[in-house]
Write a structure and sequence with these properties.
Radius of gyration of chain B: 20 Å
Number of strands of chain A: 21
Distance between the termini of chain A: 37 Å
Structural class of chain A: mainly beta
Largest sheet of chain A: 16 strands, antiparallel, barrel
Helix content of chain B: 10-25%
Shape of chain A: globular
Strand order of the largest sheet of chain A: 2-3-4-5-6-9-10-11-12-13-14-15-16-19-20-21
Distance between the termini of chain B: 57 Å
Structural class of chain B: mainly beta
Strand content of chain B: 35-45%
Oligomer: heterodimer
Chain lengths: 413, 220
């Protein structure tokens, strides 16, 4: 009870800050207008923009997914700076710099500065039928990436497939099925640094892509340095090159403005680092792949928006075999009033059975469901507040983040 | 039959001439317009590039209007419906001026969705997403002030609606020239609104049938 009151107190403080700030956003309008440089002939233009996120989490029991903190109440500020640059009619570049307590909340609680994204895009024609892009950028898989930044995301966290950490690790090979399955009974908090989800957030991995739009069809293919499930420190090309390239793609169909339907795939090695063979003369770490296929759908009309994604992913686990998992979510947002919206998300993840090494089969991780609700309020074009409550349940002895309350204030400039 | 047409045309011309000559006072003049803003780039960081290249935004114009105490006019005469469309990924027109109580319709002429928003004190609105063949929502603007519009989907799209209490207003041309006709005689203030930071005004004294020239450039 005391902790809840503490959270409500913190939320009230954040909201009070919001109300104070809302009266002063005229300067943000002026800043927004001023933060660009351009050549006189318009050939070059560079726009600087940003987001300041102030988040507070109240975590029940152990933190869920990718929240790297064991504190019951955790404050997570973040500054994201974006630089959009247009070079002539055919080149565009983008860079995103973040200053925070780690890419995932608390993963570097003493503070961290990172260049999370940087890419150069070349569009050879005057229409978008084909584009080439190289750099470090978000995956083309699925439909969540286009709303993953705090201003667009109806929630504070990511859907389950993008942040629910499973017992597969990219750090070491289990000695056998028993050793692998025993991880189910360990607390995630002790293993969060080595275990992985199906897709790690927006997966800002390094490589190149080709994508485009032809009539009502979209296509996107990419070759990146690490798998969808790989952790943020591996995304940078200086940490992991392209010895084991990962191929991903998405085909989309937009019959009209309301619908967006897509199918994605990804295939590549997920074990890191790949230098050493698992056993002398045996397969290398690059031989063990993560293969994911996904479907996504989006629909919007008037004040409603719906999204859904489903991913079937197979991890080839050394000394165990194929570990398959299916995860999906359904998400809806409704604008109750011009400035107020409500959002609801239902997530589930299931795991198949693998041989347990003693003649039987067992589910390799704990099935989980999670329901999430959020209320968001846009004070103006520069200030937004969100309140989220999540309830989840896992089959098994150890629950991760059964309840989560989070509040977020975002200033956009 | 030919004779009937020519009689009707002559009558109409005579009528129009009499209105312009004897329909009150006129102000003509020029507003010193700011240079056009450069085109905001389209944000296409994560979404695939769209089929359409956005049009250039409308050039800067000034709203010129008269304030003071005017003879009363009926509400029916004041309230009008005008249109502000979304076309080729821009608001068209990008600046609309209406008298308080007027309605504005927001048709979508693009194949894509737009989501027209305003968080301005004079009007908070969110029109949601509708296709080009759907009935366009219409909004009554019943409070005077500046309404700044944006599109939730296309960040580069911005527009302004100026809601005025006065029935006497006009938009300048792209050179800044303007003409306000059929004004009542009396002492008033002529105002030029250029953007949320730039507004100029000058006092004017109008006599029936007279034309006054005013230069609005921030000087006195």
């Amino acid at each position: 009870m005391k902790e809840y009151l503490k959270t409500i107190g913190l939320a009230a403080l954040v909201l009070e800050g919001a109300f104070t700030a809302v009266a002063q956003t005229e300067w943000l309008e002026n800043l927004d207008d001023a933060l660009f440089i351009e050549a006189r002939d318009g050939w070059f233009r560079s726009d600087l923009s940003g987001l300041i996120d102030l988040e507070t989490y109240y975590i029940d029991e152990r933190p869920p997914g990718l929240i790297f903190s064991d504190d019951e109440v955790f404050f997570n500020p973040r500054l994201s700076m974006f630089l959009d640059t247009k070079l002539g009619d055919h080149f565009y570049s983008f860079a995103q710099l973040r200053l925070d307590r780690g890419f995932d909340p608390g993963s570097r609680s003493d503070g961290d500065v990172r260049l999370d994204e940087y890419f150069l895009r070349y569009t050879p024609f005057d229409d978008p039928r084909v584009n080439f892009q190289v750099g470090k950028f978000a995956t083309v898989v699925g439909n969540w990436v286009s709303r993953h930044l705090s201003w667009e995301n109806p929630f504070i966290n990511a859907p389950l497939p993008y942040e629910n950490v499973v017992i597969v690790t990219d750090h070491e090979a289990p000695t056998g099925p028993g050793n692998f399955l025993a991880r189910r009974n360990r607390a995630l908090g002790d293993n969060r640094a080595t275990w992985i989800p199906v897709i790690w957030g927006p997966s800002y991995t390094s490589g190149g892509s080709v994508f485009g739009l032809v009539d009502k069809f979209e296509y996107a293919f990419e070759i990146k340095n690490v798998a969808l499930s790989s952790r943020p420190y591996a995304w940078d090309a200086t940490r992991h090159g392209w010895d084991y390239p990962v191929v991903s793609g998405r085909l989309g169909y937009r019959p009209n403005a309301a619908w967006n339907i897509g199918a994605s795939f990804s295939h590549g090695a997920y074990l890191l680092p790949p230098e050493d063979p698992l056993s002398p003369g045996g397969p290398s770490k690059g031989s063990f792949k993560q293969t994911t296929i996904g479907h996504d759908i989006g629909y919007s009309w008037r004040h409603w928006q719906f999204w859904a994604e489903a991913f079937a992913s197979r991890f080839e686990v050394p000394n165990v075999g194929d570990a398959d998992t299916l995860s999906y979510y359904l998400e809806a947002r409704y604008k109750i009033r011009p400035q107020l919206y409500g959002a609801l998300r239902w997530n589930q993840q299931f795991f198949n059975k693998v041989p347990n090494g003693v003649g039987g089969e067992e589910r390799w991780d704990r099935d989980i469901w999670r329901i999430e609700s959020a209320l968001g309020y846009r004070f103006d074009r520069h200030l937004q507040g969100k309140l989220q409550y999540s309830l989840s349940r896992q089959n098994g002895l150890i629950q991760q983040g059964e309840q989560l309350v989070a509040v977020q204030l975002t200033i956009k400039f | 039959m030919k004779r009937t047409y020519s009689w009707a045309l002559s009558s109409a011309l005579a009528c129009a001439l009499s209105f312009s000559t004897f329909g009150g006072a006129t102000i003509i003049g020029k507003v010193n317009l700011p240079p056009a803003k450069s085109k905001r780039p389209v944000n296409a960081r994560y979404q695939l590039a769209r089929a359409q290249t956005p049009d250039s935004p409308s050039p800067p114009l000034a709203v010129v209007y008269l304030t003071g105490v005017f003879p009363e006019i009926s509400q029916d005469e004041a309230a009008k419906t005008v249109e502000m469309g979304q076309k080729n990924l821009q608001f068209e027109p990008g600046l609309v001026v209406v008298q308080m109580g007027s309605s504005i319709a927001f048709p979508n002429f693009d194949d894509e969705y737009h989501n027209v928003l305003s968080y301005s004190k004079a009007k908070v609105l969110d029109l949601g997403r509708y296709r080009k063949n759907e009935k366009a929502p219409s909004v009554v603007f019943d409070k005077a002030g500046v309404v700044e519009l944006s599109c939730e989907i296309h960040e580069h799209m911005q527009a302004t609606i100026l809601v005025l209490e006065t029935p006497h207003f006009t938009l300048s041309d792209s050179e800044g020239n303007f003409r306000l006709d059929q004004l009542p005689a009396g002492n008033y203030t002529v105002n030029a609104w250029l953007n949320r930071r730039t507004m100029w005004e000058k006092p004017v004294s109008l006599k029936e049938g007279e034309t006054v020239e005013v230069i609005l450039d921030g000087g006195h």
